[in-house]
Design goal:
Layout: H1 2-7, E1 12-20, E2 23-31, E3 36-44, H2 48-95, E4 103-113, E5 117-128, E6 131-143, E7 149-163, E8 167-184, E9 189-192, E10 194-208, E11 211-225, E12 227-229, E13 235-236, E14 240-254
Antiparallel strand pairs: 1-2, 2-3, 4-5, 4-14, 5-6, 6-7, 7-8, 8-9, 8-10, 9-12, 10-11, 11-14, 12-13
Length: 255
């Protein structure tokens, strides 16, 4: 290595010839800054031409092994570079923010029942980003202390706004677009389809991947007018009111 530094050359060949009787051994050593390689050949009763040819072959072998080694190193460097590039690209992809899914479908259900009263509501809503529209159906059956039966059905169009992502809150309002009610006693029945009603609701949701669990509360107030006797041309002058609250729960799916 000192000779290479002194001569300012990167490579160095060192030839050693050992002769004993008619036997001659050639030892050719190749030195570079990183490693060294030695090849040997033995010849018996060889002429000078034979020794020259053997030395040429040893030299060619060393040079070929060196070129192959350098090609291998070069290929490994390219592979390492490609792997690093692929790894960097993959990390870049992994760190990219996935586009937020804007559409969400929700289904809400609530029910309450006891001896003389049953209340049920079902809602479907489609949300885009933070705004949503939906439809709700409401049904209530009641038997009063006097024995009268009240059967109320109402259909609402809902609008809502949502805040938050993981844990989220929703506030909404619905308007009654259609409905009917029937008041029935032991000997007569009145029906009405003249409805005015509103519903207000608040929801708390938790989003987990594509799915969402929902819990909330709704308050409804409904008014029916112009009750007509089921069999005769008679009307009730007084309106009929329905109001109350209900705990509701549901699930959502984001896509």
């Amino acid at each position: 290595m000192l000779i290479q530094e002194f001569l300012h050359v990167p490579y160095l060949f060192h030839l050693e010839v050992i002769a004993e009787d008619n036997l001659v051994q050639l030892s050719l050593k190749f030195l570079d800054p990183d490693k060294q390689k030695t090849l040997t050949d033995t010849c018996e009763d060889c002429s000078t031409l034979d020794l020259t040819e053997r030395l040429r072959k040893l030299t060619n072998r060393l040079l070929k092994e060196k070129d192959l080694s350098e090609d291998s190193i070069f290929r490994n460097k390219i592979l390492d570079k490609n792997k690093k590039s692929d790894s960097g690209s993959q990390q870049e992809i992994n760190h990219k923010v996935l586009p937020q899914k804007n559409l969400k479908l929700r289904g809400i259900y609530g029910e309450f029942s006891k001896k003389d009263l049953s209340v049920k509501t079902i809602s479907l809503a489609l949300l885009w980003k933070n705004l949503g529209l939906g439809f709700s159906s409401f049904n209530q059956n009641l038997i009063s202390t006097s024995g009268n039966k009240y059967d109320i059905d109402a259909n609402f169009v809902d609008s809502m706004i949502t805040f938050g992502r993981g844990f989220n809150g929703t506030f909404g309002m619905g308007w009654a677009m259609s409905g009917n009610t029937k008041i029935e006693s032991s000997n007569q029945a009145y029906i009405s389809q003249d409805i005015f009603g509103l519903r207000y609701f608040g929801l708390i949701g938790y989003q987990w991947r594509k799915f969402e669990s929902i819990l909330g509360y709704q308050y409804h107030q409904i008014k029916f007018n112009e009750f007509i006797h089921q069999n005769y041309d008679q009307q009730l002058q007084n309106p009929f009111f329905v109001f109350g609250g209900l705990i509701i729960a549901g699930i959502g799916f984001q896509f």
